[in-house]
Specification:
The protein is mostly helical and 78 residues long. It has helices at residues 3-10, 12-20, 26-30, 51-58, 60-68, 74-77. Helix 4 (51-58) packs across helix 5 (60-68).
C-alpha cells in the first residue's frame, strides 16, 4: 500500500480536505512524507522542519516578500 493511502486511512478529515480542494498543493498530491515525518519530529504536526523554513524551501520568493512586507503577519513569522 502506498504511504499516502496508509496515512489517509486514519486521517479522514485530511483526505476529505484534499479531495474537496479546488487547487491542490503538488507536494501533498505526491506524498504526505514530503513535509511530514510519520514517526517522530520535534516540530508541530510532525513536520520535517519549522513551518516557515519548510514552506520557503520550495517557495523561495515568498521568504523575501515576507521579510520586505510593510506589515507583518504574526503567524507567518513564527
Amino acid at each position: 500500500m502506498p504511504a499516502q493511502e496508509l496515512c489517509l486511512r486514519c486521517h479522514e478529515p485530511v483526505k476529505w480536505a484534499l479531495e474537496s480542494k479546488e487547487h491542490s498543493h503538488k507536494p501533498v498530491e505526491k506524498a504526505c512524507s514530503n513535509c511530514h515525518n510519520a514517526h517522530n519530529s520535534e516540530y508541530r504536526f510532525l513536520l520535517h522542519a519549522p513551518t516557515r523554513q519548510l514552506c520557503t524551501s520550495c517557495h523561495v520568493g515568498v521568504d523575501k516578500v515576507m521579510r520586505n512586507a510593510e506589515v507583518s503577519n504574526e503567524p507567518v513569522f513564527k
